[in-house]
Amino acid sequence: xxxxxxxxxxxxxxxxxxxxxxxxxxxxxxxxxxxxxxxxxxxxxxxxxxxxxxxxxxxxxxxxxxxxxxxxxxxxxxxxxxxxxxxxxxxxxxxxxxxxxxxxxxxxxxxxxxxxxxxxxxxxxxxxxxxxxxxxxxxxxxxxxxxxxxxxxxxxxxxxxxxxxxxxxxxxxxxxxxxxxxxxxxxxxxxxxxxxxxxxxxxxxxxxxxxxxxxxxxxxxxxxxxxxxxxxxxxxxxxxxxxxxxxxxxxxxxxxxxxxxxxxxxxxxxxxxxxxxxxxxxxxxxxxxxxxxx
Length: 294
Fold this sequence. Notes:
The structure is a single chain. By secondary structure, the protein is α/β, with parallel strands linked by helices. Helices cover about 30% and strands about 20% of the residues. It contains 10 helices and 15 strands. The protein has helices spanning about 25-30, 40-50, 70, 105-120, 150-155, 180-190, 215-225, 240-245, 260-265, 275-294, and strands spanning about 1-5, 5-10, 20-25, 55-60, 80, 85-90, 95-100, 125-130, 130-135, 165-175, 195, 205-210, 230-235, 250-255, 265-270. The strands form 2 sheets. The chain has a 10-stranded mixed sheet with strand order 1-2-15-14-13-3-4-5-6-7.
C-alpha cells in the first residue's frame, strides 16, 4: 500500500514492534540523488531524526575519502561504515579509521588468480586504507589521480607481513560479462575465502574478507550501543545492501532497487531521486514524536 509517498509491503512490522533507534542508509542510489547531491528535504530529515533521538549511520561501499558529500550531515556520533563494512571511520575527524577489517593479501592473491582463470579478461583494483591502485586495463579512477598502476601481484606485494597498508577490498571488473553473471562466477570461484558483492550497474564486483559485510559491521556497532536489530531501520538499492536489509528489523528497498534487494527488504519506498529515504524518515520522526506525546 502507499502511505505519504512510501510504499510498504505486507511484511512491515507489527504496530507493537520496537521504536526505531538507528537508521542505517546506503548512499549511492539510495540517500544520494543520481547527481550525487543530498537534497534539502533529505538534509532536513536527517537532522530531524537526530533531534528525535534516532541515530543515523551512513553505510556505504565508498572509501572514507569519498565521504565529503555527506560528512557535514553526520550528527552526534560522527561515524560511518565504509568499504562495505571493512572500515568504521570518524567523519568528524576527517575520516580517521577507528576499525579496519582487512582482506589478507595472500587470500586476495588467491582470489585474483582463481578469478582470472574463471573469467579471462578480468582486471583488478586494490583499495587500501591509504588509497586505491589498479591494473593497466582497469578503468581509471579520475577521483584518485595519485594511484599506482601495476599488476595485482605487485600491488599486493609486501616485504613482510603487516609492513604495508591494510587491504580493505579488491575490485574486479569485466568488460563483457553480465553484472549478475559475473557476481555468480566470482562467488562460486572464491567459495568461502572471501565475501563477494556488487554495487555498480556494470560488471564490477567488490571482494572483502570472509564474513565482512555492511550487515556484520553494522551489527557490531549496534551491539556496542545496546541497539538490537529490531530497533534498526535500513535502506538500500543494490546487492551489497541485501545482508543489511535482511538483518534490520525494518528495511526499505528503493523504488530504483535491484530485484534481489526488493525481495530481501521488508518494505519499499520511492526512488532516490524522489527522496525515498527522507519520505520514510519523516514517518519515523512522526511516530517518535507521537510516542513521546502519549
